Amino acid sequence: MQIYLLSIILFFSFSIIFSYKKLYLFSLISMIAMTTYTLIFLNIGDISHSYRSDYITRFIGWSMSTPLLLLMLISSCKIKPSNHQIISIIMLDILMIYSGYYTLIDNENKWIYFSLSSYFFLFLIFSIYQLKPKNLLFIYLFMIWSVYPIIFALYQSNIINRYYYDISILISDFISKLGFGCLFLV
């Protein structure tokens, strides 16, 4: 639980740094992550089943923060997307997140939902790649995001337990959100 307190402090600190640097979307992303981990620390939103558990607050936080990360990535693209393309990208992201959520609540079909979520992820990568994003930002974000399904699959297969799953996801959140934001500072 101490790691959650540290995460709350770090996300709060970075929200201030990003605000000072006028990166307001990254400040908002950090505040969403801070709120998510505060709720997890308070054990609010724990969804437990006989076969698996996680925090719904994590998925809600992702559904608010990852579209903002994608908007920042899209803003760096050489080809400016249409409104239709932006909405499609955000929808793919939300579908990816919530099909991942369904792997937790439907044990019988978890690998179908996992495959569906992976499909949305790959289609999301392809959709953004067509807009010619800045290579470093694009590679960084999607390399980090590629770790999440691996962690998820290890947890779903009982190779890692809940503790290591939570720590792995938390570290990945730090790297994806704060690291991506720091790349915009340079």
- Poorly predicted runs are none
Provide the gyration radius in Å.
16 Å
Gross morphology is globular
**Lateral arrangement of strands in the main beta sheet:** 1-2
Report on this structure.
The protein has 186 residues and is mainly alpha-helical. It has a single domain, classed as Rhopdopsin 7-helix transmembrane proteins (Up-down Bundle). It has eight helices and two strands, in the order H-H-E-E-H-H-H-H-H-H. It has helices at residues 2-20, 24-41, 56-75, 83-105, 110-129, 135-145, 147-156, 162-185; strands at residues 46-48, 53-55. A two-stranded antiparallel ribbon has the order 1-2. Strand 1 and strand 2 form a beta hairpin. Helix 1 runs parallel beside helix 8 (162-185) and helix 2 runs antiparallel to helix 3. The longest helix has 24 residues, at 162-185. The chain starts with a helix and ends with a helix. 28% of the residues are buried. The mean pLDDT is 90.
Can you tag this structure with a few keywords?
Rhopdopsin 7-helix transmembrane proteins, 2 strands, 78% helix, mainly alpha, two-stranded antiparallel sheet, 8 helices, 186 residues, globular
Topology of this structure?
Layout: H1 2-20, H2 24-41, E1 46-48, E2 53-55, H3 56-75, H4 83-105, H5 110-129, H6 135-145, H7 147-156, H8 162-185
Helix pairs in contact: 1-2, 1-8, 2-3, 2-8, 3-4, 4-5, 6-8, 7-8
